[in-house]
DNA sequence: TATAGTATTATCAAATTGTTAACGCCATGC
DNA sequence: GCATGGCGTTAACAATTTGATAATACTATA
């Protein structure tokens, strides 16, 4: 496969680095590696990768710091960033996502999961035209202008909040939206509603869509995936 | 593809100029380039392009200034103008749109986004031009010049506001018009009328047309659909 | 198995729209 | 000038839809 996509991987464990690199290269990705946060930052600026995978625990700058630095630079505003975390490290996971990452992978990393995630992310990025206001993901079509949603050309009627919520999640497929993030985007900072409210709307969407495309990330939030 | 549309691109970075030019030419557009604001202004007057893409940051006159100058000339009143801006530069974006641009593109520019945007703009222009005359949707015919509506060759008498409202909604079938949008388009920004007013007119249209073609999108607005 | 987090459901409150009637305005014809 | 009728607007109320919450059940994880 020839994708032409560049991926930067930063991790202080050489083994992991090697495994990931090998698998991604086999898939046709161009891979650059870094052994610590500072090297990651430098190489990111130099190679301008399409996707950056950052281990959170690294000597020097940790992954979250690197992410924050990168996101300050306009060139990296749209770059995909994924964190690699040790399992059960929920707090840092959340901090990571708050600092603007698109997703995270928990160690130990299975090559299968890794590849499907990476492939899926790129597939979705390409199919996401944030341009016309129409988002098409597989057979699902979300038209912001016409305010309607259709699956396989079949119209689905969503209430406003449901539409906004789905629309938000689908605007960045694969990205995990924190509950706070969702509240801010859809309800604004002034209105205060309970946590269950989101669940209920998610439920309604799932019900109406009859499609398993919204994944719960326990303790964090929700994400859209096909 | 042969469109015959002329496009003028102004940017001081030769690389960007070249990329855009290449992509647009591939699509069949005729492209003229300019390296700075003054040159852009001169070439615009000389070639009378259908679309002008202006980088905002340019030596000499910047894009906004050029836009303002152009808009003062009647020939450019209807010309499409797009700004090219550096990412996350919201203030200038807004100023740009205020100075009469039709849209803007943020750098780095993806060829895909560029083309879809340009194509979409021309499509829009073409379709709105048809709007000035007669709109036919199914068996419904709306004649803006004669100011009358007929369904299956049967004339329907609508009052002026009713006509304008129907005409507006039908100008973009499927698109949801926000209540504010409707107020702005039909009543203008200065007149202030209550919310029920729209409803009442919608009701009258529905009544007279005896046709289920106006859909309510609760909390949002109305749309026309056959 | 206890716990934290999420799903589900029913219910009620709130927001939004539909409908009707009434009022004032203006152009028209008498 | 004065009555008339159509039009645009508003008010008042009814009908509908939507949103939020609480209570409860479920589920994955430690």
The H-and-E topology of chain A, N to C, reads as EHEHEHEHEHEEEEHEHHEE
Q: Roughly how many Å is the radius of gyration of chain A?
A: 18 Å
- Low-confidence segments of chain A: 127-131
Biggest β-sheet strands, sense, barrel of chain A: 5 strands, parallel
> How many β-strand stretches of chain A?
12
Q: Which pair of chains has the greatest number of interface residues, and how are they split between the two chains?
A: A-B, 13 and 17 residues
For the record, what is the CATH homologous superfamily label of the largest domain in chain A?
A: Response regulator
Residues in helix, % of chain A: 40-55%
Number of self-contained structural domains of chain A? 2
Characterise this structure.
Two copies of one chain form a homodimer. The first copy, chain A, has two domains: 123 residues, Response regulator (Rossmann fold); 93 residues, Arc Repressor Mutant, subunit A (Orthogonal Bundle), CATH 1.10.10.10. Helix content of chain A is 42%, strand content 23%. In chain A, strands 2-1-3-4-5 form a five-stranded parallel beta sheet, sandwiched between helices. Chain A has a four-stranded antiparallel beta sheet with strand order 6-7-8-9, covered by helices on one side. In chain A, helix 2 runs parallel beside helix 3 and helix 6 packs across helix 8. The interface between A and B is medium-sized, with 13 and 17 residues. Chain A binds a DNA duplex (30 and 30 nucleotides) through helix 6 and helix 8.
């Amino acid at each position: 496969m020839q994708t032409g996509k560049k991926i930067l991987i930063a991790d202080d464990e050489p083994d992991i680095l090697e495994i990931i690199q090998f698998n991604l290269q086999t898939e046709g990705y161009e891979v650059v590696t870094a052994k610590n946060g500072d090297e990651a930052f430098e190489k990111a600026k130099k190679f301008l990768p399409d996707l950056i995978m950052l281990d959170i625990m690294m000597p020097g700058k940790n992954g979250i710091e690197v992410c924050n630095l990168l996101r300050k630079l306009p060139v990296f505003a749209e770059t995909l960033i994924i964190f690699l975390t040790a399992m059960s490290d929920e707090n840092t996971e959340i901090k990571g996502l708050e600092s603007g990452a698109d997703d995270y992978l928990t160690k130990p990393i299975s090559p299968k999961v890794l590849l499907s995630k990476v492939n899926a992310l790129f597939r979705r990025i390409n199919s996401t035209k944030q341009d016309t206001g129409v988002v098409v993901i597989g057979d699902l079509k979300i038209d912001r202008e016409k305010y309607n949603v259709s699956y396989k050309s079949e119209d689905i009627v969503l209430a406003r909040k449901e539409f906004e919520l789905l629309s938000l999640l689908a605007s960045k497929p694969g990205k995990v939206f924190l509950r706070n993030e969702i509240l801010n985007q859809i309800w604004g900072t002034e209105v205060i509603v309970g946590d269950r409210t989101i669940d209920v709307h998610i439920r309604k969407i799932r019900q109406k869509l009859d499609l398993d495309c919204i994944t719960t990330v326990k303790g964090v939030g929700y994400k859209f995936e096909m």
